[in-house]
Fold this sequence. Notes:
Blueprint: H1 3-38, H2 43-87, H3 97-108, E1 114-121, H4 124-131, H5 133-150, E2 156-161, E3 164-170, H6 174-189, E4 193-195, E5 198-200, E6 204-210, H7 217-233, E7 239-241
Amino acid sequence: xxxxxxxxxxxxxxxxxxSIQICIASVITTVVATYFQARSWPSYYYxxxxxxxxxxxxLIAPIASYYVRWLLRRNYRLLMEVERHANYDDLTGLxxxxxxxxxxxxxxxxxxxxxxxxxxIDWFKRINDTLGHAAGDAVLLHIAQVLTKxxxxxxxxxxxxxxxxxVFFQWETLNDARRxxxxxxxxxxxxxxxxxxxxxxITISFGLAIAQENNTIEGLLRRADTALxxxxxxxxxxxxxxx
Length: 243
């Protein structure tokens, strides 16, 4: 269960308890008010008034509290939907550029050996031109799924725009960073995308930037981007390390 789903379930339980509390408070308030108002009345009217003081809130309060709870739940879902659109790419479900930059900059403060892998799908325009944009969308979604499946729990995976993807991860040695980067490239190369009964072979070029002192995520991405262009110019389907 994701953190957002857990947060939502806690929200629902809390509001259910509040609904019960509202019902109980309504009954107690009405009974007390009726008691002080009707205690000098004849016993018949006093008893009938007290009955009404119990029955009417028990009928009205649940309906009113349910309606309020429904409004709160609807508003909460709307807020979650707004947050999803603000932070996640609609097609792939990955972090969008803004969210990736924000989350990566935060992790830079706590990660001892961070690195950024910036990738661009090889010949993506050719896929769109020959097979159509629906096939291109299927490839983008497929790449996102492969990257997510290959990534470890402490990785951040984002789609920065178009056919460009980024991975923020932690490494132990330089060879370890290169090995992880190659795992992503090989996973994509070894997993063709199936679209309408066709198998679409995909490769991707990566630029790998190892964090240096006082690096920001923007600086890392610039260095990774330079290495990515070198990878494209020197044959594609490879991972090159930034200077």
